[in-house]
Write a structure and sequence with these properties.
Strand content: 25-35%
Largest sheet: 4 strands, antiparallel
Shape: elongated
Oligomer: single chain
Low-confidence stretches: none
Strand order of the largest sheet: 1-10-3-4
């Protein structure tokens, strides 16, 4: 159970590690924004995600410059990002990201589910399926409810696909 939203972290000179919000599951895309708010020079630059082993193999983690790589440490309580090189300027770089975050609890008097309307039929079908597994009198309905749940999930999930064209052009070189 997750949803997607965006966020930013202002990077500070000499600081490599930053906390993400506690409800963050993972990052989907990330860039370094330079000259934020300046219509003539604002730019979003790609920052590559690296593994822990790649981050660990960086010989000098204190090298300063424009960050080009990020290692995302998905900790239990609070995920963190580690950028490299370490920012060399204050108030210049913004780490902009799109994240998967946990859906907020609908308890505590909240009556609105923190989810997209496309998933409501899936939610209802899923609840019916899981409740049926707890009541022995409903055992005969489990296969049908499971089928309906899986169908509703597939319909909702297919709506969240990227709907942009993809074009692949082979690079042909000479030997």
């Amino acid at each position: 159970l997750w949803t997607i939203d965006e966020g930013t972290v202002s990077l500070v000179k000499g600081t490599s590690e930053y906390n993400l919000p506690a409800d963050t599951i993972d990052l989907l895309e990330q860039v370094i924004r330079t000259n934020s708010g300046d219509t003539a020079t604002q730019s979003d630059l790609t920052i590559s995600r690296i593994s822990v082993s790649t981050y660990a193999s960086i010989p000098n983690k204190l090298t300063q410059g424009r960050p080009i790589q990020v290692w995302i440490e998905r900790l239990r309580d609070n995920p963190t990002i580690n950028v490299w090189p370490v920012p060399d300027k204050n108030d210049t770089y913004i780490f902009k990201y799109y994240r998967m975050r946990r859906i907020q609890d609908a308890g505590s008097g909240v009556e609105t589910a923190d989810m997209n309307f496309r998933f409501l039929p899936c939610l209802v079908a899923g609840l019916a399926y899981y409740i049926s597994m707890k009541d022995p009198d409903l055992a005969s309905r489990i296969p049908l409810l499971k089928e309906v749940y899986e169908e509703q999930f597939q319909l909702a999930a297919e709506e969240d696909r990227v709907k942009t064209p993809a074009r692949f052009v082979p690079r042909i070189g000479y030997v």
